[in-house]
Amino acid sequence: MRIGCGYDVHAFGEGDHIMLGGVKIPHDQGFIAHSDGDVLLHALCDALLGALAMGDIGQHFPDTSSDYENIDSRILLRHVYELVKEKGYRLQNMDSVISAQAPKMAKHIGLMQEYIAGDLGVEKDRVGIKATTTEGLGFVGLKQGVAVNVSVLLYKDQSA
């Protein structure tokens, strides 16, 4: 078994939606980011990479490369998971916490779970996603951005 953790933050800027867990969520702002800014998937990528000591998302997909400009983060996640599988590991489960004062997340979590489970080839009940506010405290509470923490547990695939 291997354990990994990931954390990502993006500030709000101009836009009319944000991407989280592959889901387009209407909002009066967007994320300032090189890619689509999906903080949940970025933190998940970092957790997966970290579990196997393979660096972080910035090393694999540098924001200095035009190849990743505005890229769908689900593409990045699928690529990272292929690296995990090449090392002989699979996802046992993940757990995550989205910290966002706005927009509200509850009605989007089921679809996020479906997308992530599909991209990783696991059952939906292996994809834990929770959301919380910060009660008006800090940059999240001031509605300046969103932060996400993710933990993963990987197991060695004996059939690989």
From TrEMBL:
Site (Transition state stabilizer): H34, T133
InterPro entries per the UniProt record, alphabetical: MECDP_synthase, MECDP_synthase_CS, MECDP_synthase_sf
Cofactor detail note: Binds 1 divalent metal cation per subunit.
SUPFAM superfamilies in the cross-refs: IpsF-like
MF (Gene Ontology): 2-C-methyl-D-erythritol 2,4-cyclodiphosphate synthase activity; metal ion binding
Pathway: Isoprenoid biosynthesis; isopentenyl diphosphate biosynthesis via DXP pathway; isopentenyl diphosphate from 1-deoxy-D-xylulose 5-phosphate: step 4/6
GO BP annotation list: isopentenyl diphosphate biosynthetic process, methylerythritol 4-phosphate pathway; terpenoid biosynthetic process
Top class in the EC scheme: lyase
Gene3D superfamilies for the chain: 2-C-methyl-D-erythritol 2,4-cyclodiphosphate synthase (3.30.1330.50)
SUBUNIT field: Homotrimer.
Cited NCBIfam families: ispF
Function: Involved in the biosynthesis of isopentenyl diphosphate (IPP) and dimethylallyl diphosphate (DMAPP), two major building blocks of isoprenoid compounds. Catalyzes the conversion of 4-diphosphocytidyl-2-C-methyl-D-erythritol 2-phosphate (CDP-ME2P) to 2-C-methyl-D-erythritol 2,4-cyclodiphosphate (ME-CPP) with a corresponding release of cytidine 5-monophosphate (CMP).
Family, similarity comment: Belongs to the IspF family.
Name assigned to this protein: 2-C-methyl-D-erythritol 2,4-cyclodiphosphate synthase
Organism expressing this protein natively: Leucothrix pacifica
Gene: ispF
